[in-house]
Fold:
Amino acid sequence: MNYINLNGFVLINKVPGFSTTNYSEKIKKIINNKLRLIYSREGLIGDLVEKVGHTGSLDPFASGVIVLAINDATKVIQFLSKQKRYIAEVLIGISTDTYDISGQIIKQQRYTKQELSKIVDLISSSLINFIGKVEQTPPPFSAKKIKGKRAYQLAREISQHNTTLLDEIKLKKHTVYIENITIINQYKDRLVLEVSCSEGTYIRSLVNDISNLIDIPLTLSFLVRTNSNNFEISQSYTLEEVKNSENLNFLLPLNVVLDNFSKVVIQDRYIFRVRNGHSFSKSSIIALNKNGLFSDKNIFTVMDKKRNHLAIAYSDNDINFKIKRVLMPY
Structure:
């Protein structure tokens, strides 16, 4: 019997040099070690963490908030808000094969103070071209798969033999949505942007696309994700803080997150149907609230009068609701 609810989220403030997978493995190990101590000390019998997922990876060289889902919380990842926000530092005068400062330089140019000022103005005026729905090609050094192999693995293999063969790596374009790009600072040859966008947006590709449009070498020199799925970096914990915690207070319970979804409350006589995965209509609803902080567009948690979360539903018209995931099956 499990006396500790392990279903929830851990918000981690990632540091450069580690992958998101590294953090997933470390957090699983840390929590399980803490659980063993708690169970032993208090004479409890309980489960351990079996599954850890994430809502979107960060490049190893990047930092910022990553959202890790623990056990049953992995089942609602797909229903979370898809919004992301980044602070990106752009280096003017250099282009690399990875589109960031960690790669090999393929183009380099020095500029005077006056030239840099004009380039910043040129970048500023170009940003309008990248607002809204944008067709974007992932970087060749990315986690996208090509014939079952990660693009960065293939790129490294090719570059070891002939760097010009990087052109052989063909990644398909995909549509992303960029809500806003703002220049928030500039110092000499470095420009700082704030970008609000949908998941799947590569900031490295954005910088490279701007570079291609204005024909000026640019590369991403630093990246911080300040918001993921509407979770702020200020809510996150460092790995050291998690390690040093005496309990599991860093675990954000699944129900707390679901409480901040858009929601519908259904009549008692429809509970059985919902818990068996059947669709329902507006006539079954007692109340509806669309002010969800963490839920994706058109996603609702379905609740009974006692505020139990019964299921996740989808509706694009607030009239007909289709069950996407049962949370409390019979």
In short: DSSP finds seven helices and 20 strands in the chain. Residues 9 and 252 are 5 Å apart (CA to CA).
